[in-house]
Amino acid sequence: MAVVTELQKIGMGLMGFGMFFLLFGVLLYFDSVLLAFGNVLFLSGLMLIVGVRRTAQFFFQRHKFRGSFFFLGGVALVLCRWPIIGILVESYGFVLLFRSFFPMALSFVLSAVNIPFLNAMFPSSSSMV
């Protein structure tokens, strides 16, 4: 069982608030202050969870340079109060950074059909009768 430190708990809270502010900023027609605050909270929470060195190693890998450039450039554009262009650039960088993770996440979601609780809630209609 993994031990979660106090800094990691704080980091999870910061990431949660960051995602909330990002969603709320998008829902309020790309409010630049909320988006900037969400970006800062999300990135600082990420650094507290995995550590500063491992976060830097993730973003500055050679094969992830383009994704990191677009993601961090989008964050900079949001901080410079160009929220719509910044979020578009940031989301493109996010896709480039995590494109190797998407097949694993999709297979996890598709395997959720085998969970008994979900099978009871959503019965399949593939019966032979």
UniProtKB/TrEMBL annotation:
GO terms for cellular component: cytosol; endoplasmic reticulum; Golgi membrane. InterPro entries: Got1, Vesicle_transpt_Got1/SFT2. It is a multi-pass membrane protein. Its main location: Golgi. The keyword Cell division does not apply. It comes from the Eukaryota. The chain crosses the membrane at residues 12-30, 36-56, 68-89, 101-122. Pfam families: Got1. It is found in: Golgi apparatus membrane. GO terms for biological process: endoplasmic reticulum to Golgi vesicle-mediated transport; retrograde transport, endosome to Golgi. Keywords: Golgi apparatus, Membrane, Transmembrane, Transmembrane helix. The keyword Cell cycle does not apply. May be involved in fusion of ER-derived transport vesicles with the Golgi complex. Belongs to the GOT1 family. PANTHER family: CGI-141-RELATED/LIPASE CONTAINING PROTEIN (PTHR21493), VESICLE TRANSPORT PROTEIN GOT1A (PTHR21493:SF245). This is Golgi transport 1A. The lineage of its organism: Eukaryota, Metazoa, Chordata, Craniata, Vertebrata.
